[in-house]
Structure formats: structure tokens, C-alpha cells
Design a protein that fits this description.
The protein has 15 helices and 15 strands. By secondary structure, it is an alpha/beta fold. Helix 1 runs antiparallel to helix 8, helix 4 runs parallel beside helix 5 and helix 9 packs parallel to helix 11. 43% of the residues lie in helices and 13% in strands. The chain folds into two domains: 329 residues, no CATH class; 115 residues, no CATH class. Strands 5-6-7-4-8 form a five-stranded parallel sheet, with helices on one face.
């Protein structure tokens, strides 16, 4: 019997997934098992259109856009929580920024993976204009799926009640413990889900709490602050074929209101089948994708709030890779192995400053050490193609060691390369050409390279100092 949506079954037995509209997804090629749906279905989870319709409608705006593709990966990740390593749990992702910057559109896009309702202002999402008890009910409704809460500035009837609601809600949404409330019967114990929230300013700034509580709250959230000027924008660029970003947003909102609910359904259909066929194999594949994300970003060794935040990106990466493999997120939308690490690099550089950027660069450089060439061993200038085949030339100077890295190699291999290198230039780690227009690169020395080539000049001693000091 299923008393709420999500996974239902017994260890070693057959697992089913019950969608929010009451539809039961069971494995093929096994004797059918009756699942009694004991909760009230929610019509917003009724799918509209086919998966191909949803893909075709979203593609013109979403394809190749970093943050939109990421929120779709994140939206597909909740069913993996019960299959992922035990240290992966409920988390929140908030998108903050001034009105008109596309934050609600991104949230509605993510919600369309599971739900929609063109008659509602929030489409498939819910509103922060609510109570803690109502949020707990929504946790049950969205178990093993995505909950989207729009416009935190609408929470509470006063500034005081707003802060109280948001603080309590963050702790509730980030945990799986629960209890039945007298009068409502709400039971959310064990409800695994991910949450996306939107607000005009980061939730942490809305709250007036002690530093210890603030640290605990921030450990439970990953915050993207979107703006026109900053590195984090709703869209990397105006989508092709649209006169402006506003026109693209309008088209995307129409698409979200027309097709919804099919990607999440396609994801669980495949997960149910894979779990039935070989659950141990599925449980191994998810950590393998997580480990690959950590390898790309160097985030696996992070502890505390930074380590917990990295888990959100890693889980989204795993979901995105599976969704790409299973045809849910089309190849034309961009490489998951590029877009998700790039967003992590942007976020890490924004919140971690130069130290965060240094950690990303170190993670990229360390595996390439065997392909560094010592400048002292270069008797005559390297041919251009030979230099580009290296991972860099190590130059030992009186003031310390410098690594000269071919710019095409670093840009193709380091997630968020330009943003990372800008942060490190300002910290004195990267030395580019000075002038009216400061550059991140400089010309390769002719005594080392025979041909016109731009290189990143990286001071390894300063990189180490930055990592040791934490910024």
C-alpha cells in the first residue's frame, strides 16, 4: 500500500514508484503486484503531451544554457536519493535575484519535469505564501520528487513571521525525520526530496539568527544569485532565434504551460526497470558518476558546508548523465560533463572566492603533472603542435615556480576556465598581460615555443599559499 507518492516496496522484493497523480510504475517482465494507492492524487502531476513534445518545446531556449540544463538535471535527481550513498540527503537549491531576471522561469522549468497546471500562477510549482504545516504536507506529496517553492518574499504575514517560517522550513525540508501532527495527520518521516526555492534576495539575508544557526542554514542550501552583470545568469546568452532574453523567457513559459510531467515519468520508468533487473549494478553506477564529478572538479575532499553543497551538484550530475544515456535530456542540449562542472566552477568561484577558484585549478592541474616539461630541458624552441600536446612548461625562477599552460588546453579542460582564471588573476596567482585591457594570458616565450601561442602563466607557489591560507 502506498500512503504517499514515491518508491514503495520491500528490500529484496519488487519496487514500484507511485507518481503524484496516483499512477503506478512497475517493472516489466515480472509478475504484476497490486499496489493500493491510499493517498489523494494531485491533478498537477497528470502529464500533458509526450516526452518528445516536451523536449521539442524546451529545446530552442534551453539547449546549451548552463543554469537551465542544471536545474533539469537537479529536477530528475530526487528518485536517486534512496539509491545513492547514505550521506546524500535532502537539500535545497535557491535561485535569488531581482524581479525580471528569470529566476521563477528557471524554477517553473524544473517543476515541469514532474508537474504543471496552466490555470495556476505557479504552474507546477508551489508558493511560499503558505504555512509550515502546509509545507510538511507538500513534502509528503513530493516525496522522491522535486518540490519548488516560488517567491520567498511572500512568506509570512510580517517580517518576523516570514523569518520564523523560512528558518523552520529550511530545517524541515533538509531532513527526513518527521512526525504526525495532531489534527492534520501529516507524516513526513523518511520523505526524500530536493527543493528549489526562489526569492528576491538570498534566504540567509532575510534571516536574523546567530552565526551558528546561520552556518547550519547555509550548509543546507546552495544559493545561485542571478543578475545581468554577474557570472551567474539565467541564460548564458540570448537563445538563438529570439530577439531578446525576454522573448525567450515568454516562449519558455508558454512551453512549460503546454507540456509537462513526462521527463520525471520517463526517468522513474527506467529507474524501476533498472532496479528490478539489477539493483546492485544501479547502486554502483550512481556513485561512479558522483566520483567522476568529483574528479572533474576536485570537490571530493571538501568538508563541512562546502562538501555538502558539492553533493547537490554531484547528484544532479549523476541524474543528468543517466537522463542523457536514457534519452530524456537530448544530446543537442549540451554535454552534461561540461555544463554541470562549469556551473559548479561558477558557483564555487562566487562563494569561495579566490580559494574556491584555486581548489578548482589545483584539481585540474594535479593529474597532468607527468606531462609537464621542465624548461631547463628545452634546448631549442618546441614546435607549436608539440607544445600543445604537453600539459605545460615548468619554469623555475628566483621568486618561485611558474607553469606555462597552453590556453586552448586549459580552456577545454577546466570547468568555468575564464571565471576561475579571472578570480586567480586578481589574487596574484595568474599573471596575464597588463595594459589598458588586462588579459588573462600572455604570449609564450619564443625561446620555449616556436610559434604564436597564448599561455596562462600560473605562479604555483602563490597557488599553494592561497590553498593553505583558505583565501
Amino acid at each position: 500500500m502506498a500512503d504517499r507518492p514515491g518508491w514503495t516496496g520491500t528490500p529484496g522484493g519488487t519496487w514500484h514508484y507511485v507518481l503524484g497523480d496516483g499512477a503506478v510504475v512497475g517493472p516489466r517482465d515480472v509478475p504484476p503486484t497490486e499496489v493500493i494507492v491510499a493517498f489523494e492524487p494531485d491533478a498537477k502531476f497528470t502529464r500533458r503531451g509526450k516526452l518528445g513534445d516536451w523536449q521539442a518545446a524546451m529545446e530552442p531556449v534551453v539547449a546549451g544554457q548552463t543554469l537551465p540544463v542544471f536545474v533539469l538535471c537537479l529536477a530528475l535527481a530526487p528518485p536517486l536519493l534512496t539509491l545513492a550513498p547514505p550521506d546524500f540527503g535532502n537539500q535545497l537549491c535557491e535561485i535569488a535575484g531581482p524581479s525580471g531576471h528569470g529566476k521563477s522561469t528557471l524554477a517553473f522549468l524544473a517543476a515541469s519535469v514532474w508537474a504543471g497546471d496552466p490555470a495556476r500562477e505557479t504552474l507546477g510549482a508551489e508558493s511560499w505564501l503558505t504555512t509550515l504545516e502546509a509545507i510538511e504536507r507538500q513534502m509528503a506529496v513530493h516525496a522522491d520528487a522535486l518540490l519548488v517553492l516560488d517567491e520567498a518574499n511572500k512568506a509570512g504575514s510580517s517580517r518576523k513571521t516570514q523569518r520564523e517560517l523560512i528558518e523552520k522550513a529550511i530545517f524541515r525540508l533538509s531532513g527526513t525525520e518527521g512526525k504526525a501532527r495532531h489534527g492534520t495527520g501529516v507524516e513526513v518521516s523518511g520523505a526524500r526530496l530536493l527543493t528549489i526555492s526562489t526569492s528576491n534576495e538570498p534566504l540567509a539575508q532575510l534571516l536574523k539568527v546567530t552565526p551558528a544557526v546561520m552556518e547550519a542554514l547555509q550548509a543546507r542550501m546552495v544559493t545561485f544569485e542571478v543578475s545581468w552583470e554577474g557570472p551567474l545568469r539565467a541564460f548564458d546568452r540570448v537563445p538563438h532565434g529570439f530577439a531578446s532574453e525576454r522573448k525567450a523567457v515568454e516562449a519558455l513559459l508558454r512551453a512549460i504551460a503546454t507540456y509537462y510531467g513526462t521527463p520525471g515519468r520517463a526517468m522513474v520508468v527506467r529507474l524501476v526497470q533498472e532496479r528490478a533487473a539489477d539493483e546492485p549494478k544501479l547502486r554502483r553506477r550512481i556513485p561512479q558518476f558522483i566520483a567522476h564529478f568529483y574528479k572533474l572538479t576536485g570537490a571530493g575532499d571538501l568538508a563541512g558546508s562546502a562538501g555538502r553543497a558539492a553533493k547537490l551538484f554531484a547528484l544532479a550530475y549523476a541524474a543528468g548523465r543517466l537522463a542523457r544515456e536514457w534519452g530524456i535530456l537530448p544530446e543537442a542540449w549540451g554535454m552534461i560533463s561540461k555544463l554541470v562542472p562549469r556551473l559548479y566552477a561558477l558557483w564555487r568561484s562566487a562563494v569561495g572566492g579566490a580559494a574556491g577558484a584555486a581548489q578548482l585549478l589545483r584539481a585540474h592541474l594535479d593529474p597532468t603533472r607527468e606531462r609537464w616539461i621542465d624548461a631547463a630541458s628545452v634546448k631549442s624552441p618546441l614546435k607549436l603542435e608539440d607544445f600543445r600536446a604537453t600539459a605545460g612548461i615548468l619554469v623555475r625562477e628566483e621568486t618561485g615556480s611558474v607553469l606555462l599552460v597552453p590556453s586552448p588546453m586549459l580552456r577545454s579542460g577546466l570547468p568555468g576556465c575564464l571565471e576561475v582564471m579571472r578570480a586567480l588573476r586578481d589574487a596574484g596567482v595568474v599573471e596575464g598581460e597588463e595594459g589598458q585591457q588586462r588579459k588573462l594570458t600572455r604570449k609564450a616565450p619564443r625561446r620555449l615555443v616556436d610559434g604564436p601561442e597564448r599561455v596562462y602563466r600560473i605562479r604555483l607557489d602563490r597557488l599553494d599559499e592561497l590553498l593553505e591560507s583558505g583565501g
